[in-house]
Amino acid sequence: MTQPKTLLVTGATGLIGPPLCAVLRAKGHTVRTLSRGEQGDHQWDVAAGTMDRSALDGVDVIIHLAGESVAQRWTASARARILKSRTESTRLLVDAALKQDAVPAYIGASGISYYGIDRERSVDEMSATGGGFLAEVTRQWEGAAAPLKAAGARCVFMRTGIVLSAKGGALAKMLPPFKLGLGGRIGDGRQMMSWISLVDLVRAYLFAVENETTRGPVNAVAPEAVSNQVFTKTLGKVLSRPTLFPLPARLVSALFGEMGRETVLSNLSVIPSQLTERGFHWQQADLEAALRASL
Ligand SMILES: NC(=O)c1ccc[n+]([C@@H]2O[C@H](COP(=O)([O-])OP(=O)(O)OC[C@H]3O[C@@H](n4cnc5c(N)ncnc54)[C@H](OP(=O)(O)O)[C@@H]3O)[C@@H](O)[C@H]2O)c1
Q: Which residues, in sequence order, are CB contacts of 98 under 8 Å at separation 6+?
């Protein structure tokens, strides 16, 4: 393995943080956490623009996961929280990082929504950004780290797909109706879903920490996207349940508004060119195997 590093992880109490911190520690790295609450080793208050001064002392790599959940109705105040919790927090980290004698590397969460909502063709890290609120959020979120990049620090942006976990995220929300045999495709089911198992996402972060030539955007998705129709059938098969009840696009829009249109109805086939070219090995590249392992 590479030299053990000292890492500061924000948002470590969410879905991705706990297994990521556990794997980093198991690999011999020292992990400190930065949280709004007492559960963190260090505290910050993003809205007030304050953080523990010593949080970054001796830190080699920042992993920035923190951000207000996007899975809520996007009222004006929710939109502001979703955006500012990411951009303002990044600015706090960047300002503190630039004051360190040795400026740490930065690995920030980001999303495949960077590429927009509906792309006819597959996209990779070279593709242009797209439209929509979440694309704007990811652009500003990644952009907030620009001063670090300008200072020569290694910056990685993990453009993450739909994370498969029974503990949270999209899959956990889909499970109750599917378990009752009330699941089905969403809309016409043709929209492409770019997914990644939680296990492989954690491994991709570890890869980015340890492979110090990794820089810039990294699409954190499995090698093959699937249509919602295929995802639905596969989930039904894994749960041994029928999937006969489609959820019409109009109902999704009525129930969830723009949030639904930009998430479950979005059509993005994302290619993980960076991970593939750098020799990353997926443990769960097959959807059925990944779902069985996640559930
Ligand atoms: N899960 C996915 O499918 C997925 C897909 C694409 C991108 N991502 C991105 O990856 C990151 C981590 O994902 P996750 O699923 O682990 O997120 P999560 O479960 O929602 O947890 C995020 C953490 O961020 C902190 N946080 C929440 N609201 C905040 C606010 N208003 N201001 C500051 N901090 C706040 C919390 O940590 P403390 O309470 O400790 O402060 C929380 O535990 C997120 O930024 C997410 O947008 C996730």
A: 147, 148, 151
